[in-house]
Amino acid sequence: MKVYKGVSASPGLVLGQVSRLEHHVETYGGGGPFNPERELQQLEDAIRTAQKELDGMGQRAAATEQAIFQFQSMMLEDEGFMTEVRSYINAGINAAAAMNRVGQRYADQLANMRDNPYMQLRSVDILDATRRVLNILSNRPRVWLVLDHPVILAADRLMPSDLFSVPSGMILGIITSEGSGQSHAAIIARAMNIPSIVQVGHDFLDDCDGRTVILDANKGECTLDPDANARQQAETRICELQRENEEMAQLRALPNRTRDGAPFELLANCFGPEDIDTAMQSGARGVGLLRSSYMMLPGRILDEQEQYYFYCSCLAAAQGCPVTVRTFDFGADRTMADAYQGVQSSKLGLRGIRNSLRQPRQFETQICALLRAAARGPLRVMLPMVTDVEDWDAAMQIVEHCRRSLRERGIPFNENMLFGVMLSVPAACLTAEEFVAHGCDFLVIGTNDLTQYTHAADRELASAERYYRPASPAMKKLIRMVMDAAGPRHIPVTICGLAVGNPVNTVQYLQLGLRSFSVSPQNLLNVKRSLLDADAHPDESELD
Fold first, then answer.
1. Between 173 and which of 195, 430, 448, 525 could a Cys-Cys bridge form, CB atoms 3.0 to 4.6 Å apart?
2. Rounded to whole angstroms, how far apart are CA atoms 115 and 134?
3. pLDDT in tens, 153-193
4. How far is Cα 433 from Cα 437, in angstroms, rounded to an integer?
5. Considering Cα of 500, then 503, then 507, then 508, what sign does the dihedral take?
6. Are residues 16 and 124 in the same domain?
């Protein structure tokens, strides 16, 4: 019996037999007289076949996984990528070798973006799509493993398509020697409720095939050849977890209503499709805050098409539920080489919309990508660090310019995408009615910044911790002012931030009239439990 440590990628506990998955190592040499026209035609045929297969997997997949295969298919249409492949073919390199060379280079480039996890994940998608085309060109099968009973799958790493190459229900768990808990294979594993751990090391793979393993993805470990006692303990714990999962499923299934019958909405604060997937599984009804800044690489602004892919992936992960995107909010704690302005971008300087208005081309690129993505699903946009209505009006002028530009370019977009204000500054709360009067579609109260600006207490400074009070009388007064401004015109108001993840605070916000709450995915069910047990109108309940 030997225990191997790894990193949890998808929770769960299973006991079963291991089946080792090995990918073929390919060589792409020449085979007979070189004919560039024939190679180009074979490439085009292989691309069409690959896209048909990817579309087929997308149709079998849930919404989260559909975005992955959609990206792979779009990548095979990317003009820059395919032009480079064709140039190699015209230079005398066969189609397979050219595809392999360009795909590997693109994948390596993305994998080296250490400060951009989202783009790093896309490197695996490029390798996966490239491998599919190569296998078609080489007349190799795209199904690697045939199983007649459920197994725990072990491999160096898994591609997204690997999990769709195995019959449904045949994978008990997944163990990989490499990989990331945020990889797309891990996303799919979570969506399919398959326990998974990564980074167990290559030693485990050397002699695991056909042997029994306890895979405890909750602890991030696996036990090879467990003894009778370990097996008994695992089987008992598996039964307990099944009961706990049933209880959580029951909680997720309960309608979002307080004890006295008031409906409420639970949304999630997310960084990208990966944690959106987690949030949806935890019962979120959409994304209340998508932090768009975190997809960007320091020193490089993603272009319009790259941002468009990102937002479309987020919409797909949200499974038809609304996604609220916060435009770039670079500052002292969110620096980026192209956006960072030194002292000017500090907490009391050019953050959020202030910085975006100083860099209109960067802002226009983002707005155009968002308008296009909004044609694919219910996406809305909020502007951070808005101080006064002049900020709002200036931003809306740029939005209108972007609409005109997209019309002239003939690119489909959502003419009626909703725009709102993130209330992070006391001055904005004090004049919330002005934003409503100027056409603001919704309001979001951001407790993180609003608390620190209201109390002059840096939320990251331990010595000022006692002054950082997100449910103080001052904060409650500002919230009431916002609700009073929004109420007459029925403007939706959501509250988000770390404070909302604390059930004690959330109940107080509920009793101030708020009904829409955006919290981190891991806090969703705890907050829901507290709201279900709370009264939205405590005075009325006491009278009853």
1. 195
2. 30
3. 898 888 777 777 676 678 899 999 887 776 767 777 876 77
4. 6
5. negative
6. no
